[in-house]
What does this fold into?
Amino acid sequence: MENINLIRKIAWRFSQTTKEDFDDLFQVAALSYLTTLKNYDPNKGKITTYMWMCLHSDLKNYLRTQEKQTGHFVRIDDVKFDESYSSIPIFEQLTEEAQEVAKIVLFAPKL
It folds into this structure.
């Protein structure tokens, strides 16, 4: 595969941000790459740009499917913030003003 490093990079980023298994994401990305090669039209732009868009789309669709099947994909809205925020070491390093802003952001009602 000519663009294997780009495929790895995209799969790795998805793996780091979603905590999904890298190998699974890499397989999905590699299959998507093969489909991308078939559908690519050189007159419309660079292969890497087209490939990046297709791989991102296919990986997002894969994650949505995984979420529906397993229900374990975590969204930031599902994370419960409680009063234990003050035990976070980085929180203690903030100025009082920054701590107040963080409290407002963490405990703001959902829209």
